Model the fold of this input.
Amino acid sequence: MSWYLPKTTQVTPESAGWGFAGLRIVRDGHEASTGPDEMVVVPLSGSCVVDCPLGKAELTGRANPFAGVTDCAYVPCDTPFTIAGAGRFALATARARRQHPFRHITAGQVRVEQRGAGVCARQVNNFGTPDVLTADRLIACEVLTPAGNWSSYPPHKHDEERPGESVLEEIYYFEVADGPAGPGLGFLKGAEVLAEVRTGDVVLIPYGFHGPAMAVPGYDMYYLNVMAGPGKREWLIRDDPAHAWIREQWERR
Done:
């Protein structure tokens, strides 16, 4: 398995070497079927209309990931669909066992969370988490990390603590703001990789403690998280015991 995938536009369970989570980045119009995957269409830039036999949604979108919270659309598995519009759109996917209703998640329905404190402060837009979206396996959110700050911190994991527990596969898709002289950069510490990341890069997290994601000074950083696994649809998270104490510091501020 390759964990760091620069300028990747498609990840499937087969290409990743795992079982459930996927991602595709498309531009402008797109027509396909979800097949065995459920999907959320997330405008990265621009707007579009998502249409399928089960529903239709006009997504207002946004100019770029740093411009604000976007609306998005959930399309169930085994459903033909079209995306008509101008822009770049992330298709977050997960292998599904059953269909759930098509849904337009408006920007006002997205649960915006301010997480951490100080240099670990960041914004999490929860559009595809279990408390916001009814789905079969897919969990998705996006994180905006201000320049110079750390997110995905303290280091944590989404896999088993005891044999037989659930595992969540995780995809990070990055966009980094440009600076006066050109594109910005950031870093992500994975279980087996420390990757320099730029706009369009993908990092796969199949298991183990990972984080932080680091926005270097001068460059705001965005990432889209896509997660899925075989067990109950819940956001399993366990901090690295060596660094879990940092959360207590945030609570005292």
Notes: The chain has a mean pLDDT of 94. The two ends are 41 Å apart (CA to CA).
